[in-house]
Amino acid sequence: MSAPVPDLAALHALGPAQQPSYPDRAAVDAAVARLRQMPPLVFAGECDDLKAKLGAVARGESFLLQGGDCAETFDGVTADNVRNKLRVLLQMAVVLTYAASVPVVKLGRLAGQYAKPRSSDLETRDGVTLPAYRGDAVNGFDFTPESRVPDPQRLVDVYNSSAATLNLVRAFVTGGYADLRQVHTWNTDFVRESPVGQRYEQVAGEIERALTFMQAIGADPDEFHRVDFHSSHEALVLEYEHAMTRVDSRTDTPYDVSGHFVWIGERTRQLDNAHVELLSHIRNPIGVKLGPSTTPDDALALAAKLNPENEAGRLTFITRFGAGRIREGLPHLVEKVNAAGVEVAWVCDPMHGNTFEASSGYKTRRFDDVIEEVQGFFDVHRSLGTWPGGVHVELTGDDVTECVGGGEELLEADLGGRYESVCDPRLNRVQSLELAFLVAEMLRKA
């Protein structure tokens, strides 16, 4: 049995970064007490299943596709919105599986991604300064004093919104929507009319012919009709993650039952930080974001703390260097970690190192930079003989205008057309599908 999980007071004594400044401690205690009584959102056995799949990623036998919103919103918990995100991930997974002939582990950045770290505690507009928006888990997006006060009741709202999202996802993936015979219906009009959508239609047609052949010879495995789909989010607000940590009756070990996979961000990965301490005690598969400031010794120390038994599938390193730094910064990390015999899945986050402010004031990313970072990630792993294990992407299933470039050739002037993210810019559906085809080509060469 692992050591007991430290209590919240002990975690806060470590001086955790990026935490809300709640004005009413009694209200926080009441919200935490309420959460501790709530049923699990996910089950320990499901977390173990995902860990086994990520073990295959670490061994170079599978590829991880992790994607979803930068920051979920409570208003976004609708059947249409959840289906649209699921649909683009299913399309991407089909392209990767079919075009690269590799099993794809599907992990949504959803049902819990409601809190965001920020570079500043405050935001100023027109001479007015208020607390920064830290995601719907903490405060409201509206720029008013009332909206921006951190409210612990929102943590209970996170639970309820995550439960509703997971309920929808489970209904879609087991109720026929994820059936491979639906490959054509996943391609909605605005995607189908694009060149990448037409390319997808060719793949869908080939899959349909293969399925017809399989059916004709009497083969109709369950895998054709449903998919395994798991949830993930950044474990940021300690009160929420701690309240959702429960001891599994089968194994007598703790799991964070707020999601199947939780990760530690670049801003909270310090070895003596409360987030590393908390996640070192849970048995979920976990991830750590590693940026340009990470040294090989940092990575090795994190692996020793978070995965002391060196269990395959337990630990994923999600690198986020930026297109201009990936080829220079990543090799040293991979070489030293690999030489030490550390079991880890390497995944590329090509989004967070490539953000800039457009002349119009919108925060955006260039599609070409995203692709360049993924290509650099693959090139480094190919040169070292290691496995490029996956991609972690901020995306949406909608026709938004948040990232420039791609086959649609979105310009900075187009960003105001449909910019809907409350935090960072996401790839739209066409750009996401285009990314999948380009990554599939890289995978074939890998």
Secondary-structure topology with pairs:
Blueprint: H1 8-12, H2 25-37, H3 44-58, E1 63-68, H4 79-100, E2 104-108, E3 122-125, E4 128-131, H5 153-174, H6 189-192, H7 195-216, E5 229-234, H8 238-243, E6 245-247, E7 254-256, E8 261-264, H9 274-279, E9 286-290, H10 296-306, E10 315-319, H11 326-339, E11 345-348, E12 355-357, E13 363-365, H12 367-384, E14 390-394, H13 429-445
Parallel strand pairs: 1-2, 1-14, 2-5, 5-8, 8-9, 9-10, 10-11, 11-14
Antiparallel strand pairs: 3-4, 6-7, 12-13
Could you walk me through the main structural features you see in this protein, from its secondary elements to its overall organization?
There is one protein chain. With 446 residues, the chain is of the alpha/beta class. It has a single domain (8-178, 226-445), classed as TIM Barrel (Alpha-Beta Barrel). The chain is built from 13 helices and 14 strands. It has helices at 8-12, 25-37, 44-58, 79-100, 153-174, 189-192, 195-216, 238-243, 274-279, 296-306, 326-339, 367-384, 429-445; strands spanning 63-68, 104-108, 122-125, 128-131, 229-234, 245-247, 254-256, 261-264, 286-290, 315-319, 345-348, 355-357, 363-365, 390-394. The chain has an 8-stranded parallel barrel with strand order 1-2-5-8-9-10-11-14, surrounded by 5 helices. Strand 9, helix 10 and strand 10 form a beta-alpha-beta unit. Helix 4 (79-100) packs across helix 5 and helix 4 packs parallel to helix 13 (429-445). The chain starts with 7 loop residues before the first helix and ends with a helix. The model has no long low-confidence stretch (mean pLDDT 96).
